[in-house]
Design goal:
Elements (H helix, E strand, L loop, with lengths): L4 H17 L2 H7 L1 H9 L12 E6 L5 H10 L6 H10 L9 E6 L4 H10 L4 E5 L6 H10 L5 H8 L2 H6 L15 E5 L6 H15 L2 H9 L4 H14 L5 H14 L6 H5 L11 H5 L22 H8 L8 E4 L5 E4 L2 H11 L10
Antiparallel strand pairs: 1-2, 3-4, 5-6
Helix pairs in contact: 1-2, 4-5, 7-8, 12-13, 12-16, 13-16
Length: about 350
C-alpha cells in the first residue's frame, strides 16, 4: 500500500493519540494496516456527494461507537474511528444528545460533534397566535404537513378524544393554547400528539388560581374559556379586564353581548367585513340574536384573557367602541356610547359592545 508523506504524518499522529488515550490496544488487536486502511477509506454508507443534507437519528442511550457507526453509515463522516478519537480527546463523548439532526455528508468530525453536543435537533416549529380559531389552526397544521384540514377538524371534534383529554366541551375550540410548539420530524405524522400538547399547555395555564376564582363566581371552565375567547378577539393590550367587565355587566343585566366576532364565527374568516345580513343570521353563536354566552369558545384565548374572564375590572361600563388608534372608548350608558360611535365610527355596523 502506497502512503504519502501526509499519510505517514497522519498515521503517526493517530497512533500517538491512541497511545495517549490508552486505546492503542485497538490498533494492536486489529493491526496497524487495518487502522490505516480505515482512516484512508471513503465513507462506508451509501454514496453521497459531500455537502448533501441528510437527516440522522441519534438513538437515546446509544454508545459512542454506535453513534459513530450511524454517522459513518450515513456518509456524514469518513471514519467512525476518527470521530471517536476526537470525542475522547475533547472529553465530550458523554455530552452527545439524542434526537434528529440535519447534517451534511463529508463533514469534519469535530464540527459534527459540536452539532450533536448543542442538541439542536431537527424540529418543526408551530406557533399558534392568540385568538386563532380551530379553522385557522387547521390551515396551519396543513401548511406544516402535520395533518390535513379534514383530519384536524375530525380530531378536535372527536367526542371520545375530547373526553380522554379531560375537556368538557363539544370541541377543542378554545383549549388549543396559543404558544410556540416544537415537533420532531419523526412525530410529524402523529398530529394528535401536538393537539395533546396544546391542551396540556392550556391546562397548565388554566391553573389552580384561575379555577378557584371561576368556582367563586359559579362559572364552569367552558364558560370561562368562552368569555375569554370573546375578550381575546375584542381586547387590545391592557384592556382585557375592561372588556371582560363590559361582558360581565351585560350578562348580569340580561343584555345581549353583541360581540362582532361571534357573528361570523364558523361562517366567514375572522376579520371579514360584517354586513347587515350577517347580523340577522340566526345561528347559535350570533350574540346579537341570542342573549348570554355563545354555545362555546370562538377562538384560543391567551393567559391574559383567561385571567381577565374571572377577574373583570370593577367598572360599570356597558359599551365600548374602537377609537382607531388601537384602543377603545368605554361608556356606561347608551347616550355616551352613541356620541362615541359618532366621533370614532361614523359608518358601518357597530358591536357591543361597539
Amino acid at each position: 500500500m502506497r502512503i504519502s508523506v501526509f499519510g505517514v504524518f497522519k498515521t503517526v499522529t493517530m497512533i500517538m493519540i491512541l497511545a495517549a488515550l490508552g486505546v492503542v490496544g485497538y490498533a494492536a488487536y486489529n493491526g496497524i494496516p487495518a487502522v490505516l486502511e480505515e482512516l484512508a477509506a471513503p465513507p462506508k454508507g451509501p454514496a453521497k456527494s459531500a455537502g448533501k443534507e441528510v437527516i440522522v437519528t441519534i438513538p437515546k442511550g446509544a454508545s459512542l461507537s454506535q453513534i459513530a457507526g450511524v454517522l459513518e453509515e450515513q456518509g456524514v463522516i469518513s471514519s467512525k474511528l476518527v470521530f471517536k478519537i476526537v470525542a475522547m480527546i475533547r472529553g465530550e463523548q458523554r455530552k452527545i444528545q439524542a434526537g434528529e439532526y440535519t447534517l451534511k455528508t463529508g463533514s469534519d468530525a469535530g464540527e459534527v460533534l459540536d452539532q450533536l453536543i448543542t442538541g439542536k435537533t431537527l424540529m418543526i416549529t408551530v406557533t399558534i397566535p392568540e385568538g386563532y380559531t380551530i379553522f385557522q389552526t387547521a390551515e396551519l397544521f396543513r401548511s406544516k404537513g402535520i395533518m390535513s384540514k379534514d383530519a384536524f377538524m375530525a380530531c378536535v371534534r372527536d367526542a371520545a378524544f375530547i373526553k380522554e383529554l379531560g375537556v368538557e366541551a363539544g370541541s377543542l375550540e378554545g383549549y388549543l393554547f396559543p404558544d410556540t410548539y416544537f415537533l420532531r420530524a419523526s412525530e410529524r405524522e402523529d398530529g394528535k400528539l401536538l393537539v395533546r400538547r396544546m391542551v396540556r399547555r392550556f391546562q397548565e395555564v388554566y391553573d389552580a388560581q384561575v379555577r378557584s376564582r371561576a368556582e367563586a363566581i359559579g362559572w364552569t371552565t367552558n364558560q370561562v374559556v368562552t368569555l375569554a375567547s370573546l375578550v381575546e378577539k375584542e381586547a387590545k393590550p391592557s384592556e382585557h379586564e375592561l372588556i371582560a367587565a363590559v361582558f360581565h355587566n351585560r350578562l348580569r343585566q340580561g343584555m345581549p353581548l353583541q360581540s362582532d366576532p361571534t357573528v361570523i364565527y364558523g361562517i366567514k374568516p375572522m376579520g371579514s367585513k360584517i354586513t347587515k345580513a350577517d347580523l340577522k343570521n340566526d345561528h347559535p353563536y350570533n350574540t346579537y340574536r341570542h342573549r348570554g354566552l355563545p354555545p362555546g369558545p370562538i377562538a384560543s384565548p391567551g393567559k391574559a384573557s383567561l385571567v381577565a374572564a374571572v377577574n373583570p375590572a370593577d367598572v360599570d361600563y356597558l359599551y365600548f367602541v374602537a377609537k382607531n388608534d388601537g384602543t377603545h372608548h368605554f361608556s356606561s350608558n347608551l347616550r355616551d356610547h352613541n356620541n362615541a360611535v359618532n366621533a370614532y365610527q361614523r359608518v358601518g355596523p357597530r358591536s357591543a359592545a361597539q
